[in-house]
Specification:
Length: about 325
């Protein structure tokens, strides 16, 4: 157990990715109960840290600056407690010779076995992060919600595209799901995503053929994404960062698992918002989602039934 006085300075490092920064919140907030936490992360994730409860200050780091800049940041703060939740080559070199209070070490052997077909499951990443700070507990991430919808219509957000193609929701599915929400539930559909997904989002919106679908993909950075999500009634997302944001903000989220799975430890297996095509023994096939299907069928994506997806989403709204 890490013990400290209220005035201690702590540095917690989690540079990327979006989902992992969200999952680090319980660890940061626990640490803030006895220390001022300086959460070092990439600049684009500062708005996430800003929403974390507790005495937590977001400290920007640019990946272009290199490990010496990271080392300079740590030296300037001179923390009594140093937690490395990234624990990659850059952070290990930047903290070399320093007293590191805790490091996150992922069980890569277990992950490899799961990807190879083992029936085991990875521990929840948020609980593993929390354990590094000395608290063995099971706490879901929470972010401060500051905005609410003032719209009488049902607002549905859908995440388009993504870095890993096999982990994304097919455009044709998004189009049909959008039409079903608009036609059957009088909903307003907002398409979200990164800047590189913007063109795809506009093509998908055009294929819907309804005025009630809007494109907000690439509309600002992470801060704008958070503000968009927190005014939704429900978010439909692949297994990715926006889904973690929504759940932490208290927004119902339907997580569409294609080539990945909750067994990888990023989502609770019993979460009511998990959606996937049943009966696929090949899932998960890649730790990130992958770009090519090992079986050549892509049944994890092609087998998605829009009507069943919408039905589960409506059930989630009624919980």
């Amino acid at each position: 157990m890490i013990c400290s006085s209220p005035m201690n300075e702590a540095v917690l490092i989690r540079l990327h990715s979006l989902g992992d920064v969200v999952l680090a919140q319980p660890a940061a907030t626990h640490l803030s109960k006895s220390s001022k936490v300086n959460f070092v992360t990439l600049e684009k994730y500062l708005p996430v840290v800003d929403r974390m409860p507790g005495d937590i200050e977001a400290v920007p780091y640019s990946s272009d600056a290199g490990l010496f800049e990271l080392r300079r940041i740590i030296h300037k703060i001179a923390p009594e407690i140093l937690i490395d939740l990234q624990c990659n080559f850059a952070t290990r070199m930047a903290t070399k010779g320093m007293r590191v209070s805790g490091k996150f070490r992922m069980n890569r052997k277990l992950r490899h076995e799961i990807l190879g077909g083992s029936s085991d499951i990875m521990p929840l990443r948020s609980s593993e992060f929390l354990g590094v700070t000395g608290l063995n507990d099971d706490i879901d991430p929470v972010l401060e919600r500051r905005n609410f919808s003032n719209n009488d219509r049902l607002r549905i957000g859908i995440v388009v595209g993504g870095r890993w193609r096999l982990k994304s929701i097919p455009d044709s599915v998004i189009s049909e799901v959008s039409r079903l929400f608009i036609d059957l539930h009088n909903a307003e559909v907002i398409l979200l995503g990164d800047e590189k997904d913007r063109a795809e989002a506009f093509e998908t919106a055009a294929s819907v053929g309804r005025e009630s679908v809007k494109v907000r993909a690439g509309d600002g950075g992470t801060g704008n994404l958070i503000e968009r999500i927190e005014t939704m009634d429900l978010l439909i997302s692949p297994d990715s960062g926006p889904a973690h944001l929504a759940k932490a903000l208290g927004i119902p989220v339907l997580v569409v698992f294609t080539s990945t799975s909750p067994v990888l430890g990023f989502w609770r297996q019993e979460y009511a918002g998990n959606y996937m095509v049943n009966g696929l023994k090949c899932r998960p096939c890649h730790r990130h989602g992958g770009k090519a299907c090992p079986t050549g069928t892509e049944m994890c994506r092609r087998g998605i039934v829009p009507h069943s997806l919408v039905s589960q989403a409506i059930e989630l709204l009624q919980v």
